[in-house]
Amino acid sequence: MRRILAIENESFGVDAWPAELFREYAADPHCCFIVAELGRTAAGYSIAVPRRGGFEIDSIAVRPNARGKGIGARLLRDAIGKARRSGAAFVSLTVRRDNAAAIALYRKFGFVRTATVPGYYEDGAAGWRMRLRLSR
Ligand SMILES: CC(C)(COP(=O)(O)OP(=O)(O)OC[C@H]1O[C@@H](n2cnc3c(N)ncnc32)[C@H](O)[C@@H]1OP(=O)(O)O)[C@@H](O)C(=O)NCCC(=O)NCCS
Q1: How many domains are contained in the chain?
Q2: Which of 36, 49, 50, 77 has its CA 20 to 30 A from that of 130?
Q3: Ligand 1 in contact with 36 (CB < 6 A)?
């Protein structure tokens, strides 16, 4: 858990989630909490939960010095696979409109924007709702 919290802080700064929230996700039997390793240490994680007939990616992050090596793509592919196997009709998420790297990652997997949510983030930045429809 210590490594996950470090990745979280390095990735999200003041918006980083507290340890307690990670413990709640980890304890939720419905939650899909995937940790990617590079060498012997955690390099990234994703958290997805079933919600309203689909799967919601609540968070995904790769530690800064491990980015650009395909780890984010692997985490996303695994989360989508889990959603598909569970019978979910779609995978959805919210991303900052100015987060070009994450948006490019999601688009690469076929996610499309379904809505813009003005002022979604603490600092007033807009969020994009994005969705990937899964074929049954
Ligand atoms: C978004 C994030 C998870 C991507 O992880 P990563 O391991 O670096 O991504 P990958 O190496 O697997 O890259 C996969 C694809 O993502 C896109 N991508 C990744 N980094 C990018 C960048 N800096 N600029 C543009 N596109 C980028 C590309 O489409 C890339 O495919 P390509 O290599 O064929 O061009 C990572 O940048 C991160 O942790 N960011 C901080 C946390 C965050 O913003 N999470 C998303 C919250 S919604």
Answers
A1: 1
A2: 36
A3: no
- Ligand 1 atom nearest 93 alpha carbon: 48
Q: What is the reported pLDDT for 15?
A: 87
53 φ, ψ (degrees, to nearest 5):
85, -5
Q: Domain containing 88: what range?
A: 2-133
CATH code assigned at 53: 3.40.630.30
Select from 72, 58, 70, 132 the least CA-distant residue to 102: 72
> If residue 75 lies in a helix (H) or strand (E), which one and from where to where?
helix 71-85
pTM value is 0.97
Q: Which atom of ligand 1 approaches the CA of 70 most closely? A: 12
> Tell me: the pLDDT tens digits for 58-103?
999 999 999 999 999 999 999 999 999 999 999 999 999 999 999 9
Nearest to 96 by CA among 68, 61, 66, 44: 61
